[in-house]
Each structure stands twice: as structure tokens, then as C-alpha cells.
Write a structure and sequence with these properties.
Blueprint: E1 4-5, H1 8-30, E2 35-41, H2 45-60, E3 64-70, H3 76-88, E4 94-97, H4 107-113, H5 125-132, H6 141-154, E5 161-165, H7 172-181, E6 185-189, H8 196-200, E7 205-208, E8 226-229, E9 233-236, E10 245-248, H9 253-256, E11 262-263, H10 270-290
Parallel strand pairs: 1-11, 2-3, 2-4, 5-6, 5-7, 7-8, 8-11
Antiparallel strand pairs: 9-10
Helix pairs in contact: 1-10, 2-10, 6-7, 6-10
Length: about 300
């Protein structure tokens, strides 16, 4: 048996299409469009690519894309002042600071400064607390995208046993909470888990979010499981030529695909969903700030 590949590109494209239609309808009805501000500090090459792609997707969805690029040596005070200005700007409905930030800036202070109502990354403690409390919250984009992929693939997740490898604030904790909200039984595993492969073999839904290339092997996967691979790791690829690299996930895809029923590829799985869910969060924030009815997307 070879697993069905979960096509994140197709599912994300469909979601972005629904978001674009909702934005157009809201503009027609109210004469306003959502605005997303993205702040990039420094010259990190990967971050520049991410910011460019987010800008393209934002404009394609009919939203206003605002980009602010600050120098590598920007002080924390200057960045926080910029965020205060964006918090106060009624044309800005969502704010995202591209991480990582340079060493002189505290990532947590950045997260704490962004208005929770505009926190489209879903990382502010106010949003994290609301998510845990079962209240409406802006939710981190990658976890939200991961759970949408599982629901699109399996339908109702009620009663499924989900194992999440990784306990970060960015992915592990929020994805576990979202799966609990879908009535899954959730086990959180991490580097101190005893006999991690055996724990993973219990999973109907296995979410890998550890940042270790191809750590999850075939014998970690329950036959027929749905595997959501959040990892994006760049490794050497000498077969492509000297100095070449390739992207792999946290799951050894080829061997795990022989055991699982469904699996996300890397690239082309969770990644496209992250940007689609950023747009969804921006639409949600826009509606809540203006008192508009939130469209079903």
C-alpha cells in the first residue's frame, strides 16, 4: 500500500479562492478591504522569500499588502515604536513580524507588543490563552493549516488518537489544542518521551513538528495513519551536484508512505496552507475589528 499524498497546494489554492471571493463581497458591501502589514528586520534570505510570497498572495486575495523592511541593526525600541504605530492604524487589520529577528531584539517583546486583535500569527499570549480556553482566537497559521489538511482528508476527526511530536508555542501546543477542539484524543510527545516510536505507533493522526530531518521512520507509523509533516529542513543533495541542497520534512517520506494511508509531502504539503491561513486570519481580524459578519471560508 502506498499512501495517498495530501496535496497542500490544491487545498490551499481552493481556500485562497474562497477568501478572495469573500474579500470582494465585503468590499462591494462595505467599501473596505483588509490590510496586512508585514515587517522584516534584516537581510535573511529565506525570510525575504517568505515576505515576498506573502505579499503576492495578499494582493491576489484582493487585500492591501503593506511591507516594512528595516535594517539589520534596527534597535528594539525602533521596531516596537513601529508596531505601536501599526497597532493604531485603522487601515492595518493584521500585523506580522517575520521571524527570526536579529539578536538585539527580543522575539517575545515583539509578540507581546502586537495588538492581540491584529495578531494574525496567533502568538500573543492573549490569543494563546483564548485558544486553550475554547474561545474565539486568532490561531497560529501552520497549526491551523495542518488541522484543515487532516479534516479535508479524513472528514470528522472525532475520536481519533492524534500524536503530536514537538511542544513549541509556534506549532506543537496550538496544534494539540486545535485537535482537542476537534474531539481528538491527543498525546503530546517530545525529546524526553520514553520509547517515542511506540507512542507514535498509536496515532491515527501523526503530526511531526520537531525540525529534525527525516526523524520519523516507517516503523514509527501505524498502518493506515494520516501523517502531517510540518518540518521544513534543508539537507545536502550531492546527487544534484556539488553544493546542492534539497528540502525534506521531519518524516522519512518514501518509507513512511508505504505504511500510512495519507501523508503530506515536503514541499507542497503544510507550507502552502500556512500562507492561506495567514490570509484567513487577516480576513477574520478585519471582520471582527469592523463588526462585520465573518464569512464561512
Amino acid at each position: 500500500m502506498t499512501a495517498q499524498k495530501i496535496d497542500g497546494k490544491d487545498i490551499a489554492a481552493a481556500l485562497r479562492g474562497r477568501i478572495g471571493a469573500a474579500v470582494a463581497a465585503l468590499e462591494k458591501r462595505h467599501g473596505k478591504t483588509p490590510g496586512l502589514a508585514v515587517v522584516l528586520v534584516g537581510e535573511d534570505a529565506a525570510s525575504q522569500v517568505y515576505v515576498k510570497n506573502k505579499g503576492i498572495a495578499t494582493k491576489e486575495a484582493g487585500m492591501a499588502s503593506l511591507e516594512f523592511r528595516l535594517a539589520e541593526d534596527t534597535t528594539e525600541e525602533v521596531l516596537l515604536d513601529k508596531l505601536d504605530a501599526l497597532n493604531a492604524d485603522p487601515e492595518v487589520n493584521g500585523i506580522l513580524v517575520q521571524f527570526p529577528v536579529p539578536a538585539q531584539i527580543s522575539q517575545q517583546k515583539v509578540i507581546d507588543t502586537i495588538d492581540p486583535a491584529k495578531d494574525v500569527d496567533g502568538l500573543n499570549p492573549a490569543n494563546a490563552g483564548r485558544l486553550v480556553s475554547g474561545l474565539d482566537a486568532l490561531t497560529p497559521c501552520t497549526p491551523l493549516g495542518s488541522v484543515i489538511l487532516a479534516k479535508e482528508t479524513l472528514g470528522d476527526l472525532t475520536g481519533k488518537h492524534a500524536v503530536v511530536i514537538g511542544r513549541s508555542n509556534l506549532v506543537g501546543k496550538p496544534v494539540a489544542q486545535l485537535l482537542l477542539n476537534e474531539n481528538c484524543t491527543v498525546t503530546m510527545a517530545h525529546s524526553h518521551t520514553v520509547d517515542l516510536p511506540a507512542v507514535c505507533r498509536q496515532a491515527d493522526i501523526l503530526v511531526a513538528a520537531v525540525g529534525i530531518p527525516e526523524m520519523v521512520k516507517a516503523d514509527w507509523v501505524k498502518p493506515g495513519a494520516c501523517v502531517i509533516d510540518v518540518g521544513i529542513n534543508r539537507i545536502d543533495a550531492p546527487e544534484k551536484g556539488e553544493g546542492k541542497t534539497r528540502l525534506v520534512g521531519d518524516v522519512a517520506y518514501a518509507e513512511a508512505a508505504e505504511i500510512a494511508a495519507h501523508i503530506t509531502p515536503v514541499p507542497g504539503g503544510v507550507g502552502p496552507m500556512t500562507i492561506a491561513c495567514l490570509l484567513r486570519n487577516t480576513l477574520t481580524a478585519f471582520c471582527r475589528q469592523n463588526g462585520f459578519e465573518e464569512p464561512e471560508v
